[in-house]
Design brief:
This protein is mostly helical. It has helices at about 1-20, 25-35, 50-160, 165-175, 190-200, 205-220, 225-240, 245-255, 265-275, 280-295, 300-310.
């Protein structure tokens, strides 16, 4: 509606200016009060309203142009930032691709290292097994060497004979050798064999002691000192770290001399040998039987101490 009034005012205003028609004064005033856009209407400064409008339009046009330039500049900067962001994104994608390739390479290398480690572990395990077999072979050889050494020491001990008697010297002078007393084991009797066994036992040389005692047991099974020989045999085995042989030797003494005064100590040693072997239940049986059969013996007191160490079964 306002636009229609302005159009009418523009037409009428032009006519008024040209003097083509004369409108009633009231209508002219009314129209002037309604619209300011007429070609010959002036404001307080004496300028026409249309000129002012044109100036406003020119100013607005200038402002629009300035705004357009700012928008263009901002758009350019935004485009530049978008291009930069795209380049950054492309670079990030390339870096990500490179990182993925590097990760793949690292995984492959890690798998290769794992395979190498497993192979090395297998080789170490195989080496340990070979080392164990080698150690077992060395232990066996050392054991055989100890046995041979004991035999040699025993032979050397047998060579430690007393001076020959006058009868043997006369026999050598006549050219007749007495082989029963020199150069063979028969040269040492039961008493001498047992005495030498005692000597080496007291010196702590149990291997040589065992050699003499075995010889004594084999050659003199009916000797009255066999009980002592069997006891020393079992004790030598025990102190030499051979508990099974010690138990067997002590058992031979029990079977051959059941009334011997050494029985309590023999049973104590058998229990201690079983305890050293880790057979705690069997050791408890021996200690308990010793306490029951010989309650007043010193060996029984030692057996009670062992039972306290072993604890309840």
């Amino acid at each position: 509606m306002v636009s229609s009034i302005r159009a009418v005012f523009h037409v009428l205003g032009g006519r008024l200016c040209r003097g083509a028609h004369i409108l009633p004064a009231r209508l002219a005033v009314l129209l002037l009060g309604i619209s300011p856009v007429t070609g010959c209407v002036v404001d307080r400064t004496g300028q026409s309203a249309s000129g002012t409008l044109q100036q406003d339009l020119a100013l607005t046009h200038t402002q629009v142009q300035a705004l357009q330039r700012r928008m263009d500049d901002e758009l350019s900067r935004t485009s530049a930032r978008l291009v930069e962001a795209e380049e950054t994104a492309q670079l990030s994608r390339r870096n990500l691709a490179d990182s993925g390739a590097l990760l793949t390479t690292m995984v492959a290398e890690l798998q290769s290292l794992r395979g190498t480690f497993e192979e090395f572990s297998h080789q170490v395990q195989a080496g340990d097994e070979r080392l164990e077999r080698f150690q077992a072979d060395i232990d066996f050889r050392l054991g055989e060497f100890d046995k041979r050494l004991a035999a040699v020491e025993s032979a050397v001990a047998y060579l430690d004979l007393p001076l020959p008697s006058p009868e043997s010297e006369r026999a050598e002078e006549t050219g007749v050798k007495d082989t029963s007393k020199r150069g063979t084991s028969d040269a040492i009797g039961a008493g001498e064999t047992l005495e030498r066994a005692r000597k080496y036992f007291d010196a702590g040389d149990y291997r040589v002691t065992l050699a003499f005692l075995k010889e004594f047991k084999h050659r003199f099974p009916e000797d009255p000192h066999l009980e002592e020989a069997l006891f020393l045999l079992g004790e030598s085995y025990f102190r030499d770290g051979q508990p099974v042989e010690a138990i067997q030797a002590f058992q031979a003494l029990i079977e051959n001399f059941p009334t011997s005064d050494r029985i309590p100590n023999v049973m104590l040693r058998q229990g201690e040998a079983l305890q050293a072997m880790g057979q705690k239940e069997d050791a408890r049986l021996f200690f308990s039987e010793l306490i029951r059969a010989y309650p007043d013996s010193e060996a029984a007191n030692a057996a009670k101490a062992h039972l306290e160490v072993l604890g309840p079964g």
